[in-house]
Amino acid sequence: MSEECLGELHHISSIFLAVLHAISGFLSTAGNFVVLLAIYQTPSLHSVSNYYIASLAVGDFLVGALLSPLWVTKSVLNVWQNEHPLTVAAELMSVQTLITTTFNLAAVSLDRYLAIINPMYYVRVVTLFRCVFSIAVIWLFSIAFSCLRLVITDPLDLPKLWIAVAVIGYTLPFVIISYSYYHIYKTARRQSRRIEAEARAVSTVAAEAGSSDSVASETKRNRKAANTIGVIIGIYLLLAFPSMIVSGIQLVTTNGCLKIRIIRVWFWGALCSFSSSAVNPWIYAARNRDYRRAFKRIFKCWFAKKTRERTTASTRAKVVDSIREQSSM
To answer: pLDDT by residue (tens digit) across 125-147?
Structure first.
């Protein structure tokens, strides 16, 4: 096989990719661990919506803790062959975490859609049992689906698997996310107009002032929700787009050499896709006031603990030095 038809990375690129994958993995692991710790330690976050976010955080945590090290190793060793055990393991984990993450994103979106569109129906239907059951189904399905990579080993059959991954892992969840947030946005706009109309209909000055405050507060919340929706969908599409493009090229091209050479681009596309796991904690959690307070409390406790440890170590050292001075006299 000629050098032009190899998927091998250049040495500098492989090292650079390994470093970036390591940084992304660390941020994913640390950020999602803080989210899980915040949910565990904060009673006000023990709700159905936040359990879906916890499931999402577990998936993103595994991306940083398990998948990123696999890609770091692949980059350092420059492993690009489809049949290599390291490639099989990385692709299996990639499919599993992709399905878990995107389906959890869809579950979070659908949960918020039901809560905003029909609150009474939401309270009656979305129970803790159904929440836990749906999360278990997501994880079991993602594991079962990813195991297809162990069965499909023929390089000629792999494109069929990636088509299924693209449809099930990207298209279906994104349709649910788009549908949910489109109706959330419409409902927010409709509620804002209704509140403003009610405020204009108020006759007394005192009541009008109180309604104006309510309108301002509600409008601000709706605007923030709309901005969050834009960030969520924008980041989701932006980071997934490179992998989608690479998958599309590999599926439509009949040039066997190009199919191999484009494997080099897969390393970069994977980095973009996995970096969303480092971003998700801040998009889905940090914009929430309860999460921000929980984060501050966690970091304060961590810094206070470190300060106490340094103080204790310093005091212990001073005591030891004092005893040595007295014994030498």
So the answer is: 888 999 999 999 999 999 999 99
Residue 140 sits at the vertex; the CA angle it makes with 59 and 108, to the nearest 5 degrees, is 50
What CA–CA distances, in Å, run from 162 to 12, 214, 235, 246, 287? 29, 50, 22, 11, 34
Cα–Cα dist 329/127, whole Å: 74
Contact 233, 178 (CB under 8 A): yes
DSSP state of 171: I
H-type helices in the chain, by residue range?
A: 11-41, 48-62, 68-77, 85-117, 119-125, 128-146, 148-151, 158-165, 172-201, 205-252, 256-261, 263-281, 289-328
- Residue 9 has what DSSP assignment? P
Cα–Cα distance, 35 to 291 (Å, whole number): 8
Q: Is this structure's pTM higher than 0.85?
A: no
CA distance 228 to 287: 8
